[in-house]
Design brief:
Blueprint: H1 3-27, H2 32-43, H3 50-54, H4 61-71, H5 80-96, H6 100-117, H7 125-137, H8 139-142, H9 152-155, H10 158-180, H11 185-190, H12 192-205
Helix pairs in contact: 1-4, 1-5, 1-10, 1-12, 2-10, 4-12, 5-10, 6-7, 7-10
């Protein structure tokens, strides 16, 4: 894969996270597989390549589809909340990278959660709760906080809100990867067509 394809993978990871947050907030649930891929991407801090972060390219299908809907010409397929989550995660990633102490806290917390997952399943509620708490103690402290819209009953349910924070952490992880690959926020606007074409090709070939 060329660099732009790898960059599209990472950006699709951000769009994927935004969609999962929106689904959790409005429907109260996502599949265990979707949650597993999200958590695994957080744990893959020393991956040898970008694909390893997500397991396989096919695991980003939801992200490709969301990117196409959000950046495509058909405004009816766009979701304002998903767009806002993406913009917020890309912004928070930039703020996070300026804070060495916060990065160290994140690294320590991820290591702890990784070890914890070896005693439970990777999607166990204890692991999710730990990652959600880590998000609250780090990303949420940077500000501005990402305000999630949805059904209040779901947002007030601890198990669901923990999954939302965990998925947001996975989105930040993808944003970090995207930036490391040369991604910049203004690229999303000025390279929109190229991202669409690349995401479409990746979706169709995997």
């Amino acid at each position: 894969m060329n660099n732009f394809e790898l960059r599209t993978l990472a950006l699709s990871g951000v769009f994927r996270a935004a969609t999962l947050v929106n689904t959790l907030a409005n429907e109260g649930t996502i599949s265990d597989d979707d949650l597993r891929v999200s958590i695994q991407s957080i744990f893959e801090t020393d991956a040898s390549d970008v694909i390893q972060v997500y397991g396989k390219v096919g695991n980003l299908s939801l992200g490709f589809k969301t990117l196409l809907n959000q950046l495509g010409k058909n405004s009816e397929k766009r979701n304002i909340d998903i767009a806002r989550y993406v913009v917020s995660m890309l912004f928070l990633e930039r703020q996070l990278m300026k804070k060495t102490d916060m990065l160290e806290k994140l690294s320590t917390g991820v290591d702890l959660a990784t070890r914890q997952s070896e005693h439970f399943t990777i999607t166990h509620e204890n692991v999710v709760s730990n990652l959600a708490d880590l998000y609250s103690r780090t990303i949420s402290e940077i500000g501005p906080r990402i305000m999630v819209n949805g059904e209040q009953s779901y947002l007030e349910t601890t198990a669901i809100s923990n999954k939302i924070r965990t998925v947001l952490l996975a989105g930040i992880r993808s944003a970090v990867l995207w930036q490391q690959l040369g991604g910049r926020r203004w690229h999303v606007l000025f390279h929109r067509r190229k991202y669409i074409k690349t995401a479409q090709n990746l979706l169709e070939s995997h």
